[in-house]
UniProtKB/TrEMBL annotation:
Pfam families: Hexapep, Hexapep_2
The protein, known as: Unannotated protein
Residue ranges of the TM segments: none
Length: 199
């Protein structure tokens, strides 16, 4: 199955688009970007040069994914979410000259398997989002996020744990939690580490 690309999308000839993926209208995918199989890039989304995206990812409308971001399989990027790449942004150098690509070092956002970034959330690079973590809409993430963490606020803080289904886990005592949707169980080893016991 080949990729479906809207006639109004701008996809560089050197971008690699996996089988079954869809690029919707007015989206831009720049040179060297790699998208896996069965991905969806929504209307007006921007995928920067050399960004790496795994299989079965969803990049919603108007999301901005700047290089050198790396997204594992099954990642969700919500509408108008932003993955930044400049730790100390400036348009000009101290001497007033316009900055060029050689005047700064791009840093990226890494998102692990199954994680989800809510609408209008901002991930400030360099930062790593753990597997199956959930970033609430409008949150600003400026530090690494543990696996299964539910993060909210500005700056984002962990407010709960979530399971693979994305639903907040329920405590069952003795630092253990259960997913109300799947029945999977988890154990909290520390305030920033949750271990999956069963799926």
């Amino acid at each position: 199955m080949s990729a479906k690309i809207s006639p109004t999308a701008s996809v560089d000839a050197s971008a690699v688009i996996g089988d079954g993926s869809s690029i919707w209208g007015d989206a831009q995918v720049r040179g060297g970007a790699k998208l896996g199989k069965n991905c969806i890039v929504g209307t007006g989304a921007y995928i920067d040069a050399n960004v790496e995206i795994g299989d079965n990812c969803k990049i919603q409308n108007l999301a901005l994914v700047y290089h050198p971001a790396k997204l594992a399989n099954g990642v969700f990027i919500g509408p108008a979410a932003v993955l930044t790449n400049d730790q100390y942004p400036r348009a000009i150098n101290p001497d007033g000259s316009l900055k060029s690509a050689s005047d700064w070092d791009a840093v990226g956002v890494t998102i692990k398997e199954g994680a989800a970034i809510g609408a209008r959330a901002v991930c400030v690079a360099p930062v790593t989002i753990g597997a199956w973590a959930l970033i609430a809409a409008g949150a600003v993430v400026n530090k690494d996020v543990p696996d299964f963490a539910l993060m909210a606020g500005v700056p984002a803080k962990r407010i709960r744990w979530v399971g693979r289904a994305g639903v907040p886990l329920e405590s069952i005592g003795d630092n253990r939690f259960r997913c109300p949707t799947t029945g999977a169980t988890y154990k909290e080893e520390s305030s920033d580490k949750l271990i999956e016991e069963s799926k």
